[in-house]
Write a structure and sequence with these properties.
Radius of gyration: 29 Å
Bound molecules: guanosine-5'-diphosphate
CATH superfamily of the largest domain: P-loop containing nucleotide triphosphate hydrolases
Structural class: alpha/beta
Number of helices: 15
Oligomer: single chain
Length: 461
């Protein structure tokens, strides 16, 4: 599906900055030829004499023959390397200028700059890892919580790939059976009965449904839930944002309508990650500057999945609160998750939970720092089960989720087609399902999708 790569690439694989050690990686057919031009083993051996997967000390020199560093060199011979190609790794001293100079020496010797994620992309093309495993590598690098790291590590170990391979195998077994019936109706082949096929499809549907449901957790842990805090001015939205963010990110004031802009923040609630925006109060305002903020707030609600609707119980419930509730009602009808926050519980109450029948409600005092209760409540709305110990496969991004949904819809159609329209339509639907699940782990996926995924990597990975 992909052309083999003709260039030999090089990049600094460790973060740019000062450090004890930095690693420069070179990968490609000509990695050893290129390395020999500027890396001189202390043992005086040529690269071809050096055992694969071994480490040795060498002088690294620039094009003018000046020694840049004494470095440890590791060589991996194709196909037994991360990329499946010949690989040379230079572990040098971790100076910013030094690593740049060594990389320049690699370029002078014939290597070209690696693009973002290009080493891992080559590994994928060489069949060293599936697309979901590659995505998990990004997940490990990006993980902000231990739960996210656990899911990424599980992904790298290939459990989701194994699961999707099994589902693919189950689907193709039914397809094979259907086409055997169509093509050789009279042959006495060993085949599944009609009930057997329905049973097999029910099993596939159950597995796909469990995967589909797992995305609510995976999305919350790995991607973060777009969240908005809404409410009329002065209900305590900024205070709640600061409480969740545990710092003074938003400016808290006593003057209604002073939070004019949408402020973004990523916060951790247990295993869940919230991508939070505070908003200007939802209040029709004559003030033109604030109006911009209010319009933006409504947009933020549209773009959010979780809405923290804040009401100040120390003041009577009024028309503005009613307006907020109407917006929240609309959002919930659209399938968004709503948590009603009754704030200022430290003060005398003018109204309570009775106003919010059917909603999940938490009563708190943001000013007094009731963070744990709020955080637990939010986490509980998205995370089910014990992530660390359950060992279940969990979808961690929208691409995987969309493939599973597509596959599931096609298997469900196939099951009905089997009874209503006949075997050939069922076979076509199942082929569609097989394609969708193949896209998930990258067996069948467009170059554009692959490009998109690997561009999320950093250079050097
Ligand atoms: P916003 O306009 O909705 O963002 O409201 P702010 O967060 O700016 O808060 C408005 C005022 O209410 C500030 O003076 C806060 O200190 C105060 N406030 C916020 N939360 C509480 C609370 O739980 N109890 C009390 N007593 N005051 C609060």
């Amino acid at each position: 599906m992909y052309t083999m790569f003709s260039d030999t690439i090089a990049a600094i694989s460790t973060p740019h900055g000062k450090g004890g050690v930095a690693v420069i990686r070179i990968s490609g057919d000509d990695a050893f030829k290129i390395a020999e031009k500027f890396i001189f083993p202390k043992s005086k051996k040529s690269f071809s004499e050096i055992k694969e997967n071994s480490v040795f000390l060498a002088d690294v020199k620039n094009a003018e023959g000046k020694t840049l560093d004494e470095s440890l060199i590791t060589i991996f011979r194709a196909p037994r390397s991360y990329t499946g190609e010949n690989v040379v790794e230079i572990s040098c001293h971790g100076g910013i200028l030094l690593t740049q100079n060594i990389l320049s020496a690699a370029f002078s010797a014939g290597a070209v700059q690696a693009g973002p994620g290009e080493f891992t992309r080559r590994a994928f093309s060489a069949g060293k890892l599936s697309l979901t495993e590659a995505e998990s590598v990004i997940g490990m690098i990006d993980a902000k919580t231990n739960a996210a790291l656990t899911l990424a590590q599980r992904g790298v170990s290939g459990s989701l790939t194994k699961k999707t391979e099994k589902i693919y195998g189950d689907i193709t077994a039914v397809i094979g059976n259907i086409y055997a019936i169509i093509d050789f109706p009279d042959e006495d082949l060993e085949r599944m009965t009609h009930d057997g096929m329905v049973e097999a499809m029910d099993g596939i549907i159950a597995e796909l449904s469990a995967l589909k449901d797992s995305y609510r957790t995976g999305h919350a842990v790995c991607e973060g839930i777009p969240t908005v805090i809404c409410g009329k001015p002065n209900t305590g939205k900024s205070t709640i944002l600061n409480l969740l963010a545990q710092n003074e990110r938003a400016i808290v004031t006593d003057i209604a309508g002073t939070t004019r802009d949408v402020i973004s923040e990523t916060v951790v609630c247990g295993s869940a990650l919230l991508r939070l925006s505070d908003t200007a109060g939802i209040r029709e305002s004559a003030d033109i500057v604030e109006q911009i903020g209010v319009d933006r707030s409504k947009k933020e609600i549209e773009n959010s999945e979780l809405i923290l609707a804040v009401f100040d119980t120390s003041r009577p419930f009024d028309d503005e609160d009613e307006e907020v509730l109407a917006l929240v009602e609309k959002a919930e009808a659209e399938g968004k998750t709503v948590l009603v926050v009754l704030n200022k519980s430290d003060k005398e109450k003018h109204f309570g939970e009775e106003k919010f029948a059917g909603y999940d409600v938490i009563s708190l005092s943001a000013k007094s720092g009731d963070r744990a209760a709020l955080s637990d409540k939010i986490e509980g709305k998205f995370i089910s089960g014990d992530i660390e110990n359950s060992g279940e496969e969990i979808l961690t991004n929208a691409r995987q989720y969309s493939s599973v949904c597509e596959c599931l819809a096609s298997v469900v159609s196939a099951k009905y087609a089997l009874d209503l329209y006949g075997d050939d339509i069922a076979g076509t639907e199942l082929e569609r399902a097989a394609t969708a699940i193949s896209e998930l782990d990258g067996r069948e996926v467009s170059v554009d999708v692959v490009d998109h995924i690997f561009h999320k990597f950093c250079v050097g990975k």
